[in-house]
Specification:
- There is one protein chain.
- By secondary structure, the chain is α/β, with parallel strands linked by helices.
- The protein has eleven helices and 24 strands.
- The protein folds into two domains: 184 residues, Medium-chain alcohol dehydrogenases, catalytic domain (Quinone Oxidoreductase, Chain A, domain 1), CATH 3.90.180; 144 residues, Rossmann fold (3-Layer(aba) Sandwich), CATH 3.40.50.720.
- The strands form seven sheets. Strands 3, 7, 10, 13, 14, 23 and 24 form a seven-stranded mixed sheet that branches. A six-stranded parallel sheet has the order 19-16-15-20-21-22, sandwiched between helices. Strands 2-1-6 form a three-stranded antiparallel sheet, with no helix packed on it.
- Strand 21, helix 9 and strand 22 form a beta-alpha-beta unit.
- Helix 4 crosses helix 5 and helix 7 packs parallel to helix 8.
């Protein structure tokens, strides 16, 4: 089978590799579509995310859909855990141990022994075939395409982020960073009944998209501000009558956005930290967060979101299709990564179509 391996900074190579074999409780998946995530781009450009370092050739990729190609030894009458050969599925990319304290308390995303696709040293799914536990596979309803299935993973991140905020109907929201994750956070917040939503983003095409993108029939952004034009935190505070917003989502991973999130949050508000800073550091003024009595919550992947993500898309509350702005075959994966890394051609999410 063909795979794409990262050998070094900006060094992706297409190679041949033996296809994997499913074990008990596992399925062989024919990979259909894989999104080029921001974390993939961090590895591509920097060779690491925090203490996760690419020290040997690695297959990237974790947000994906696939077709069930074969079933492991526990197959019975053509099924394993409700799956059938030929089904299109979305796949949870994290394989948690199920035994540790976080897993037992319902937090598999925090499992210290999780095996996560495309995170060193675990290979990901920029490949023609992959093996995953059947329990990680979610059959997609009729009408779902492969790209939509792949985008359920970033939608899951957005759902988990809004879950952590305990957002209440009518509350005001700021989303700092309008990349795919930020846009989906705004969409989920809108679907959850948020009041005014303020988005900040330096790229004009993303600001324009945020103003036109809808969830549950409403634009996901009421206001989209350019941080290059003004002090966006001060402007959001002004637009909210000096109060600030109930929940600020930091979704940019930039140097100044954590402090902006603290500045725009109201007294007693919440700051949800979603973005991944390239230098593994974020800085805020402790006094500002303390004096406001803010709740700060970092986001690490997601948990128990796939079924809800499928329902949100199936019912039309959130449309993920418009985010897949660019489609590439596997042999052009380097082109896709360069496009995303350079924020070129109005790209939001580039998707690799493997078959």
């Amino acid at each position: 089978m063909r795979v794409s391996r990262l050998y070094g900074i900006r060094d992706l190579r297409l190679e041949e590799s033996p296809p994997p074999t499913p074990g008990p409780g596992e399925v062989l998946l024919r990979v259909a579509a894989v999104g080029v995530c921001g974390s993939d781009v961090h590895y591509y450009l920097e060779g690491r995310i925090g203490d996760a370092v690419v020290s040997e050739p690695l297959i990237l990729g974790h947000e994906f859909s696939a077709q069930v190609a074969d079933l492991g030894p526990r197959a019975h009458s053509g099924r394993v855990d409700g799956l059938e050969i030929g089904q299109l599925v979305a796949v949870e990319p994290g394989i948690s141990c199920g035994r540790c304290e976080p897993c037992r308390h319902g937090h598999p995303n925090l499992c210290p022994d999780v095996r996560y696709c495309g995170t060193p040293p675990i290979d990901g799914v920029f490949a023609e075939y992959a093996v995953m536990p059947a329990a990680n596979c979610y059959p997609l309803p009729q009408g779902f395409g492969p790209a939509e299935g792949a985008l359920l993973e970033p939608l899951g991140i957005a759902i988990h982020s809004v879950d952590l905020a305990h957002l209440k109907v009518g509350q005001t929201v700021a989303v700092l960073g309008a990349g795919p994750i930020g846009l989906l956070i705004a969409a989920v917040a809108r679907a959850a009944g948020a009041g005014e939503i303020f988005v900040t983003e330096p790229l004009a095409h993303r600001r324009q998209f945020a103003l036109g993108y809808t969830a549950n029939g409403l634009a996901v952004a009421d206001v989209a501000l350019d941080p290059g034009d003004s002090d966006v935190a001060a402007e959001i505070v002004r637009l909210t009558g000096g109060r600030g917003v109930d929940v600020a989502f930091e979704a940019a991973g930039a140097a100044d956005t954590p402090q902006q999130a603290v500045d725009v949050a109201c007294i007693g508000g919440k700051v949800i930290l979603v973005g991944i800073p390239s230098d593994d550091r974020m800085t805020i003024k402790a006094s500002a967060a303390r004096h406001k009595g803010l709740v700060l919550k970092p986001v690490f992947r997601m948990k128990h979101t796939y079924s809800r993500a499928i329902r949100l898309v199936q019912t039309g509350m959130v449309d993920v299709k418009p985010l897949a702005t660019h489609l590439f075959p596997l042999e052009r994966i380097g082109e896709a990564f360069e496009l995303v890394a350079g924020h070129e051609d109005g790209v939001l999410r580039a998707v690799i179509q493997v078959f």
